[in-house]
């Protein structure tokens, strides 16, 4: 356990500012500014890397591509109160790409829903509630997922319940792009627009990778997901999934009468140079040495990432 | 049976505003009565069973008591993983209503036969499996569903079924009498039971509308001097194992009957009880004759009655199988 403590104590890699001294996240009534969600994202990346490395778990790159989306949701957009995790007025969150579970746990740990040390010591271990795919046994998690194509229909049911009860809370559902191979996604997409579920917001983590490599080359040609959602009757737009200001603006885009799909263009493994875009990190976990290198890169990222680079890169690739 | 259940649902919805009905675009001239009474609580999810189950789960997570309606294998096998991962794992109050249990849609072909559904649903943790034999049991099962949270599977036949003997006694029952666990077998007819110390040749355990065939078989056997008792099993899971075991120590032969594959259904559930009887009971337990669909698809189509006959599951086939089993003892 001493060795594990050494690995999970990320402060030694975190530069002059240890994580304990970062400002406490603002309450939902006073949304965090972009720099604060960048700081949250940095801490979440550290947690994802440490938790997956010490336990030997895979899927770290899937978590890293979704970290900025989750940081903006939990730090700035969603009404989520760690003091009252079952608040009836809370916004609901579903991670439909359940294999990115460590990113949700990290968001919950860094915003005070769960104990961070508990997560780092117990993730993916015997007798733990922290399964590799996100689990509703963990406080703050609405739905266990892991079989792709599962979350959007549940999100539709929740959004319909909100409508029937004349409630104002919203449902946010993060999906993977490879997940959009599943037919059940499009069953749910049809229902959502038919019912005009405007309290439903989907964010697709468009990292362009699935099990064997690039989405559009190794399996099915997904093409433009925003066009597909639009043709299914949704409001849809593309944005840089690592630019917090762009994400926040996209998530707050008015979409009256329609569900909203934000296609967040991301990089699988974002934030760790040797993990970015390398399918190996869908499967492997960082060795102790790789973890040190990864954490030392992430430690410098409190300012977030330059805006617009991801979308431009994707557009270039599709052209 | 389907109209009986839906009418009970309409009646209950007046008292319970959390009730909702979802359909996978099926139930023409059955579900409209609910839709007209409660348009806000009715939703046609389209021909999209996977999504229907997920939507039901989302509504149930937000406090609704959700009933989903479809036919044959569509609300079970088509969306089995959604039932497992979402409804059962999260232990949600979703009741799946299946019309067309067994060969009720016999002429429509194999895609429309619900013949592996009990096995699939029985294997799901948290799932209760209900299979009433007649309209009287259907009303009781509906009442049970209204009062029992968690995932439930209700397997109905179709329409136009007649009550079995003993329906009066069942009509008078409240779910509370049905018990906790509910899950008692029903003695049919309730009044004409042999004394407990009398010799009993055969105890039938039948689930679903095919119990009618066992009722006819019991009458025919009685004319041959074979004494029997018909018990219906409206609740296949959890199974009333104590009663099964006490029947097994009383009758000379246990017979299970279901319009379902013999793999994983009622017969398998009874067989588990009988097989472990040597551990749980010091009395000898009778052998079990399992009557159901063998591990095969029908090679032809036909009416429910005809397909039952082909597989030796009608009254005539049951009598001949029971006769053979008794004579080989």
Helix and strand layout, with pairings?
The complex is a heterodimer of chains A (319) and B (329).
Chain A: H1 2-8, H2 34-55, H3 60-77, E1 92-95, H4 101-110, H5 116-122, H6 151-164, E2 171-176, H7 183-194, E3 200-206, E4 209-210, E5 213-214, H8 215-218, H9 225-231, E6 235-240, H10 244-251, E7 260-265, H11 288-298, H12 309-318
Helix pairs in contact in A: 2-3, 2-4, 2-5, 2-11, 3-4, 3-10, 6-7
Chain B: H1 2-15, E1 19-23, H2 32-37, E2 42-44, H3 49-61, E3 65-71, H4 80-88, E4 94-99, H5 117-122, E5 128-130, H6 135-147, E6 152-155, H7 167-171, H8 175-178, E7 186-188, E8 200-206, H9 211-223, E9 228-232, E10 235-237, H10 241-248, E11 251-261, H11 266-275, H12 277-280, E12 288-293, H13 304-310, H14 315-327
Parallel strand pairs in B: 1-2, 1-3, 3-4, 4-6, 5-6, 8-9, 8-11, 11-12
Antiparallel strand pairs in B: 5-10, 7-9
Describe this structure in words.
The complex is a heterodimer of chains A (319) and B (329). Chain A is α/β, with parallel strands linked by helices. Chain A has one domain: Thiamin diphosphate (ThDP)-binding fold, Pyr/PP domains (Rossmann fold, 3-Layer(aba) Sandwich), CATH 3.40.50. Chain A is 41% helix and 10% strand. Chain A is built from twelve helices and seven strands. In chain A, the strands form two sheets. Chain A has a five-stranded parallel β-sheet with strand order 1-2-3-7-6, sandwiched between helices. In chain A, strands 4-5 form a two-stranded antiparallel sheet. In chain A, strand 6, helix 10 and strand 7 form a beta-alpha-beta unit. In chain A, helix 2 runs antiparallel to helix 3 and helix 3 packs across helix 10. Chain A starts with a helix and ends with a helix. Chain B is α/β, with parallel strands linked by helices and 329 residues long. Chain B folds into two domains: 154 residues, Thiamin diphosphate (ThDP)-binding fold, Pyr/PP domains (Rossmann fold), CATH 3.40.50.970; 161 residues, 3-Layer(aba) Sandwich (Rossmann fold), CATH 3.40.50. Chain B has 14 helices and twelve strands. In chain B, the strands form two sheets. Chain B has a seven-stranded mixed β-sheet. In chain B, strands 7-9-8-11-12 form a five-stranded mixed β-sheet, sandwiched between helices. In chain B, helix 1 packs parallel to helix 6. The longest helix of chain B has 14 residues. Chain B is globular, with a radius of gyration of 19 Å. About 2% of the residues of chain B have low confidence. The chains are: A alpha/beta (319), B alpha/beta (329). Chains A and B meet through helix 6 and helix 7 of A and helix 3 and helix 4 of B.
């Amino acid at each position: 356990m001493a060795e594990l403590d050494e690995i999970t104590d990320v402060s030694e890699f975190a530069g002059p500012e240890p994580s304990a001294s970062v400002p406490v996240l603002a309450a939902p009534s006073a949304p965090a500014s972009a720099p604060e969600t960048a700081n949250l994202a940095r801490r979440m990346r550290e947690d994802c890397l440490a938790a997956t490395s010490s336990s030997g778990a895979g899927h770290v790159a899937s978590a890293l591509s979704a970290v900025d989306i989750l940081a903006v949701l939990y730090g700035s957009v969603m009404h989520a109160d760690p003091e009252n995790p079952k608040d009836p007025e809370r916004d609901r969150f579903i991670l439909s790409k359940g294999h990115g579970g460590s990113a949700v746990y990290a968001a919950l740990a860094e915003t005070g829903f769960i104990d961070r040390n508990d997560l780092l010591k117990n993730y993916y271990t015997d007798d733990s509630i922290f399964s590799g795919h996100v689990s509703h046994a963990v406080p703050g998690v609405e739905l266990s997922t892991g079989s792709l194509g599962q979350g959007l229909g549940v999100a539709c049911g929740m959004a319909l319940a909100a409508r029937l009860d004349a409630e104002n809370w919203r449902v946010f559902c993060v999906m993977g792009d490879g997940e959009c191979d599943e037919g059940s996604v499009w069953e749910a997409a049809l229902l959502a627009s038919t019912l005009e579920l405007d309290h439903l917001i989907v964010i697709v983590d468009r990292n362009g990778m699935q099990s064997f490599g690039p989405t559009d080359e190794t399996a099915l040609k997904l093409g433009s997901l925003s066009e597909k959602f639009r043709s299914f009757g949704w409001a849809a737009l593309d944005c840089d999934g690592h630019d917090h200001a762009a994400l926040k603006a996209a998530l707050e885009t008015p979409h009256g009468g329609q569900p909203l799909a934000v296609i967040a263009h991301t990089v699988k493994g974002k934030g760790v140079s040797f993990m970015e875009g390398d399918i190996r990190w869908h499967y492997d976990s960082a060795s102790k040495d790789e973890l040190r290198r990864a954490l030392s890169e992430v430690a410098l990222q409190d300012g977030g990432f330059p805006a617009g680079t991801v979308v431009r890169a994707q557009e270039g690739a599709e052209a | 049976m389907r109209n009986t259940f839906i009418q009970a649902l309409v009646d209950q919805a007046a008292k319970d505003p959390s009730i909702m009905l979802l359909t996978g675009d099926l139930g023409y001239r059955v579900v409209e009565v609910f839709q007209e009474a409660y348009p806000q609580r009715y939703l046609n999810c389209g021909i999209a069973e996977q999504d229907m189950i997920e939507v039901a789960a989302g509504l149930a997570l937000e406090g609704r008591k959700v009933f989903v309606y479809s036919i044959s294998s569509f609300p079970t096998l088509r969306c089995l993983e959604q039932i497992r991962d979402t409804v059962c794992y999260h232990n949600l109050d979703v009741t799946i209503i299946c019309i067309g249990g067994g060969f009720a849609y016999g002429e429509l072909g194999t895609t429309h036969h619900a013949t592996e559904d009990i096995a699939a649903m029985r294997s799901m943790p948290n799932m209760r499996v209900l299979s009433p034999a007649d309209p009287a049991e259907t009303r009781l099962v509906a009442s049970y569903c209204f009062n029992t949270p968690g995932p439930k599977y209700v397997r109905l036949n179709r329409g136009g079924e007649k009550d079995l003997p003993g329906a009066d006694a069942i009509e008078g029952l409240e779910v509370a009498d049905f018990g906790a666990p509910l899950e008692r077998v029903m003695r049919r007819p309730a009044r004409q039971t042999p004394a407990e110390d009398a010799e009993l040749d055969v105890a039938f355990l039948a689930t679903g509308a095919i119990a009618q065939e066992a009722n006819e078989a019991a009458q025919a056997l009685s004319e041959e001097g074979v004494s029997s008792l018909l018990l219906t099993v409206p609740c296949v899971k959890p199974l009333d194992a104590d009663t099964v075991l006490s029947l097994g120590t009383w009758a000379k032969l246990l017979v299970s009957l279901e319009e379902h594959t013999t793999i994983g259904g009622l017969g398998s559930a009874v067989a588990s009880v009988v097989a472990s009887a040597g551990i749980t009971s010091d009395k000898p337990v009778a052998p079990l004759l399992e009557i159901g669909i063998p591990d095969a698809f029908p090679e032809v189509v036909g009416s429910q009655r005809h397909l039952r006959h082909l597989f030796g599951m009608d009254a005539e086939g049951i009598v001949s199988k029971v006769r053979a089993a008794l004579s080989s003892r």
